[in-house]
Amino acid sequence: MSRLSSLNRLLWDLVELPSINPSLEYKDASLTGEEKVAIYLEDLAKASGIESKRMKVLPGRQNLILRLKPSGKIKSRIMLTPHMDVVPAEPDAFTPKIKNGCLFGRGACDTKGSIASFFHAFLRLSKETNRPKNTEIIFVGLVDEEFGQAGSRLLAQKGPKADLAIAGEPTNLNVVSAHKGNLWIRLSTTGKAAHGSTPQHGTNAITRMSPILEALTNDYPKLLSEKVHPLLGSPTISIGTIRGGSQPNVVPDSCEIDIDRRTIPGETGESVEKEMRNLFRKLKIKSPEFSATRSVPCPPLDTDPSLPLVQSFLKASNRRTTIGVPYFTDASPISMGGTPALVYGPGNIAQAHAKNEWVSLKEVESAEQAIFRFISNLE
Asked: What pTM was computed for the model?
């Protein structure tokens, strides 16, 4: 441990602190909750004289808000917003290991690598005498990203607002300005139950669902391919679950499927339902019942890459252009609240939630340097 740099030690300590999202109903409550991570970061910040505040989000769960005020009048704000929760893992996953320049452990990639790089740069700037004169830097440790994004949604609702937020996620150090949104849609068909020996007396709800499945599998993707976003490509659909019937000798009177529909900017739940109903009508298929199975909106992210602060961050991170990604992040709820948002961080999304999750220490260091260059050169 004595050989670790201060940045790597910070990451090691963060991975050692279990913070499984309690909403995911893990078997061992001692490994759940973000509070241990929040206390650890808060203590380090207070030792450097940084102002700390909590925002109550859910019972026993609070966003951590740390403010680095400028020497002069506040004219702009930047927020660094990684999330503190992780997905479930066995207890030994919280014993970090370093091998071949990578740190292994639950959350190393998603997203304690981002927390370490963002917070270390933030702390380093707090010790500089030549800090931005008119820009307040705010570090926000968010709760609940891995379930319902309650932390980022409340932050968007209650503030603080900023001129730019950078959400920490594994992007391989690419700067993400756009990502797809997410709709969970349930389609239901109904029929009439009857004994399996006399199916002519009933109406089979599964049979009614069959042409709908065929249309969504064969015809709908072709329709979606006609819509293309420059960074995100086309929308997608995936049929995730199907349920129907009770036993083989009963004609099923109900059937339902759950759909994951990834959206691009310009699409809404209403427009997607209308689009699907029009397809069914065109194919002469009786339309099913529609219902949403998510209680909160998950729209796509589409931040203007030409914004001056986005261009400044591209320069600081040694990137020429922004990219788009298919997965959903806290950046979307934050942008819904009026703060333009980017996604950035060390690690590969393929490692997120993996059994042997890891992050490259070189990438963590590069991310820290990029964040520091960005925030230290603000006005």
From this structure: 0.93
